[in-house]
């Protein structure tokens, strides 16, 4: 730094530009860049989930090891994607998260607008399908083959409610306490744990659920099971927001 350059503290003090609320999408990023980040990020996430599942089944017949490999790859991949794309779009990669942010914005909190919601969700779904097709292509599988993995049992649907509620509670709890800087590690860790403690292996994401219907591999889900899974994920999102409202209730200022 030369003598003519302002000190870093002076530059910070002079910067009076508005700051985004915790959880809000960065305001200076063009919408097309945010949409591209959501599409690419969701595609990369699904490619990681599906591809690691295929790789695992080719390397071992032990289902526990297959799930371990699948969950480990997902944890690392998701953490990297959040670090890389979080500053661009908020790294949702998940319509349930986007819908929850839109709802909190309507209630006066930070979040996406209706216009952003209308383009984020389709980009996430398209990205999820593209990621599944890409993973199949990399491993020489049919590019599109509907999954035959039935996941319609009631206990699995309950697992999706729990997984999605926990995810929403985590993300918006971090936002309420101004600790979103921990999101890459916290969210990836939660998903890795939820692979094991939920009966459904924690899809917790409507777009990912749709994408995984396009591959008849380890991570697939039968198309007939998709609507119920998505319905339970949306229920879980509502439960998660309710838990945030109760657990992270904002204090009231009194004159006492």
From TrEMBL:
Chaperone as UniProt keyword: no
Biased segments, Pro residues type: 19-28
Coarse class of the protein's main subcellular location: membrane
Keyword check for Transport: yes
Taxonomic lineage: Bacteria, Bacillati, Actinomycetota, Actinomycetes, Kitasatosporales
Residues covered by region (Disordered): 1-28
Protein name as catalogued: MIP/aquaporin family protein
InterPro entries: Aquaporin-like, Aquaporin_transptr, MIP, MIP_CS
Keywords, ordered alphabetically: Cell membrane, Membrane, Transmembrane, Transmembrane helix, Transport
Family: Belongs to the MIP/aquaporin (TC 1.A.8) family.
Topological category with respect to the lipid bilayer: Multi-pass membrane protein
Residues annotated as transmembrane: 31-51, 63-85, 156-175, 182-198, 218-248
């Amino acid at each position: 730094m030369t003598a003519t350059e302002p000190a870093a503290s002076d530059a910070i003090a002079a910067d009076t530009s508005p700051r985004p609320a915790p959880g809000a999408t960065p305001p200076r990023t063009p919408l097309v860049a945010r949409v591209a980040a959501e599409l690419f990020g969701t595609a990369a996430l699904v490619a990681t989930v599906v591809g690691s599942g295929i790789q695992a089944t080719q390397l071992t017949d032990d289902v526990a090891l297959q799930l371990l490999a699948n969950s480990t790859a997902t944890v690392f991949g998701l953490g990297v994607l959040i670090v890389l794309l979080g500053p661009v779009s908020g790294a949702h990669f998940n319509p349930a998260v986007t819908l929850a942010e839109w709802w909190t914005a309507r209630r006066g909190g930070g979040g996406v607008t209706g216009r952003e919601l209308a383009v984020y969700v389709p980009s996430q779904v398209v990205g999820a399908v593209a990621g599944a097709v890409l993973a199949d292509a990399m491993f020489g599988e049919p590019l599109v083959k509907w999954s035959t993995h039935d996941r319609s049992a009631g206990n699995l649907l309950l697992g999706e409610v729990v997984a999605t509620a926990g995810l929403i509670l985590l993300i918006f709890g971090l936002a309420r306490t101004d600790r979103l800087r921990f999101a890459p590690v916290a969210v990836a860790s939660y998903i890795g744990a939820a692979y094991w403690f939920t009966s459904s292996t924690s899809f917790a994401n409507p777009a990912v659920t749709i994408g995984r219907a396009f591959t008849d591999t380890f991570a697939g889900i039968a198309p007939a099971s998709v609507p119920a899974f998505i319905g339970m994920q949306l229920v879980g999102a509502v439960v998660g927001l309710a838990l945030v409202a109760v657990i992270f209730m904002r204090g009231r200022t009194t004159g006492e």
